[in-house]
Write a structure and sequence with these properties.
InterPro entries: Oxoglu/Fe-dep_dioxygenase_dom, P4H_N, P4HA-like, Pro_4_hyd_alph, Pro_4_hyd_alph_FE2OG_OXY, TPR-like_helical_dom_sf, TPR_2, TPR_rpt. This protein has 16 helices and 17 strands. It is of the alpha+beta class and 541 residues long. Helix 6 runs antiparallel to helix 7.
């Protein structure tokens, strides 16, 4: 469900219905409880009159009749009147919302999305927690104070995200999130103790003011958070701090065997480290799966707009109105920006489609969307590398689709008829949705398209939406970051003139921070373009 914003948007309507159903239930429940209350009151009154009075009501025929009637039916009716609607409510929830609700796995992935955004955009955890995730990002769309309050994370949520990092073997971030969640738990303990103290003073009871008023659940949460923290510190090689944390956990539950064993183990490890001077801190975990390599580090820096092309390369970039000598484009030449002139040339065309056309394409795709996969014709898998939903549109699906295909032909000077292209691929990214660095062409082994269509020669990527933050398209070799510009089209060559894949065409879709990013890809193939883009004389040309 997290894999596309359009699916997440549907959840809003589901929750709207849930709120409606619950409000109705509560209203009826209140009146039912109210009538139960007055029934119980009456019964109690009559009971007192039967027990205490000189003339017991039960000796009176009407009193006896009422007692028998109450016990033979009224009580059952009232108990049922409370019980039955509750089961109906649960049954309705289970049947009406079955299949529409996200799973625990969805929740876990959503927590991962927050971690990914934190990592890629180097966001401050405290800003994320306080509902100000966009601080430090280039956006003017900052939430108001009411929204900020609604976006504030609670200690349980912070703990859940920490556990997500932990499960990812990302102990560095697990430590950060666990520290925050424990700090919050402790701050809340202080306020609660103060409130309890005030309450007891009000009641004139100062003796038991600091007595443990026992919210066991909360204590368990902290105990468990401390265990996670201790282990994460240990995995990071921070033995002394890990020991201190385990001791703190032990003070909450001195009889806990696992914690006591961990303390002994850590003390032993610290002693031997002092003796031999070498701390075995296991392997240093990586932030998220593949972030350790240079390619990923560069990808993330480009997503943050931190890298620019070399100055000499930048100086040769230009902006022009392009008509390719074509009469259609002469009437309204397209504003074009060349973002890289080295191979592969990367060009951004502004306003290649209209808002209405973009909307039509999105509407046509919505019923056909499925989770994107990566791979080739032999094996395709769902993966965090590409978090989105996609649909394929035929030219004949809508007049707009064929019109746009033709327009891409005019803009690129390439053959974009159905025999030289793939269908239009429409994509909607999900929560933290991204597409990690990849090439669009297929290698010889992958053999996706056969000899007539040939390999993907050029990519024409159109942005069908804006986003509030994140989601740029980046080229880690060319050092180019292309922000999402609604209705613009991005063109780059995937192959060298020789037909070999151009490794420099490496590119990626950065994680979307805020917003719903829609794109449409038109892949133009070699077949039918032999004379439009001629072979070079050297394999590297
Ligand atoms: O979303 C982007 O900006 C890049 C998408 C992409 O590279 C692809 O779909 O092949
Ligand atoms: Fe791509």
């Amino acid at each position: 469900m997290y894999s596309s914003m359009s699916r997440l948007e549907k959840l809003v309507a589901v929750e709207e219905k849930l709120v409606e159903m619950s409000k109705e239930f509560l209203k009826e429940e209140k009146s039912r409880l109210h009538s139960l209350e007055s029934f119980v009151e009456t019964a109690e009154q009559q009971l007192q009159m039967s027990v205490n009075k000189s003339m017991s009501l039960v000796h009176h025929p009407v009193g006896a009749y009422l007692l028998v009637k109450r016990l033979s039916s009224d009580w059952l009716q009232h108990v049922k009147s409370v019980y039955q609607p509750l089961t109906d409510f649960v049954n309705r929830y289970n049947s009406e919302y079955h299949g529409q609700l996200p799973s625990a796995e969805d929740a876990e992935w959503s927590a991962h999305a927050i971690l990914r955004l934190q990592e890629v955009y180097q966001l401050d955890i405290r800003n994320i927690i306080s509902g100000q995730m966009e601080l430090g990002l280039s956006t003017n769309n900052v939430p108001g104070s009411m929204e900020q309050n609604a976006l504030r994370l609670k200690r349980e949520d912070i703990f859940a995200i920490a556990k997500g990092a932990y499960r990812n073997n990302d102990y560095r971030n697990a430590v950060k999130w666990l520290n925050e969640s424990i700090q919050l738990m402790e701050a809340e303990e202080v306020t609660e103790n103060r409130e309890n103290l005030e309450e007891s003073e009000d009641a004139g009871d100062t003796s038991g003011a600091l007595r443990y008023k026992g919210n066991v659940k909360k204590e368990n949460l902290k105990f468990s958070a401390l265990q996670y923290l201790g282990y994460s510190l240990y995995k990071q090689g921070d033995l002394e701090d890990a020991l201190a944390i385990y001791k703190k956990a032990s003070s909450l539950d001195p009889k806990h065997d696992e914690v006591r064993d961990s303390i002994k183990l850590l003390q032993r490890k610290i002693r031997s480290a002092n003796m031999f001077g070498n701390v075995n801190n296991d392997e240093h975990p990586r932030p998220w799966a593949s972030a350790s390599n240079a390619k990923m580090i560069k990808y993330m820096a480009l997503c943050r707009h931190e890298l620019k092309p070399r100055p000499d390369v930048q100086a040769r970039l230009k902006c022009r109105y392009q008509s390719n000598g074509n009469p259609y484009l002469l009437l309204g030449p397209v504003k074009t920006e060349v973002l890289s002139r080295k191979k592969p040339e990367i060009t951004l065309f502004y306003d290649v489609i209209t808002d209405e056309e973009a909307q039509t394409i999105k509407n046509r795709s919505l019923p056909k969307m499925f989770r994107s996969r990566i791979g080739n014709s032999f094996s395709e898998v769902e993966s965090h590398i590409r978090i989105s939903q996609q649909a394929w549109l035929h030219d004949k699906d809508d007049e707009v689709v064929s019109r746009v295909s033709k327009r891409i032909g005019l803009l690129t000077g390439l053959n974009t008829t159905p025999t030289s292209t793939e269908l239009l691929q429409v994509l909607n990214y999900g929560l933290g949705g991204q597409y990690e660095p990849h090439h669009d062409y297929m290698t010889a082994e992958e053999k996706m398209w056969g000899t007539i269509l040939g390999n993907r020669m050029a990519t024409f990527l159109m942005y069908l939406s804006d986003v509030t933050a994140g989601g740029a398209t980046v080229f880690p070799v060319a050092n180019v970051t292309v922000p999402v510009v609604k209705n613009a089209g991005l063109l780059f060559m995937d192959l060298l003139r020789s037909g070999r894949g151009d490794v420099n065409s490496l590119h990626a879709g950065c994680p979307v921070v805020i917003g719903s990013k829609w794109i449409a890809n038109k892949w133009i193939h070699e077949g039918g373009n032999e004379f439009r883009r001629k072979c070079g004389l050297s394999p590297n040309e």
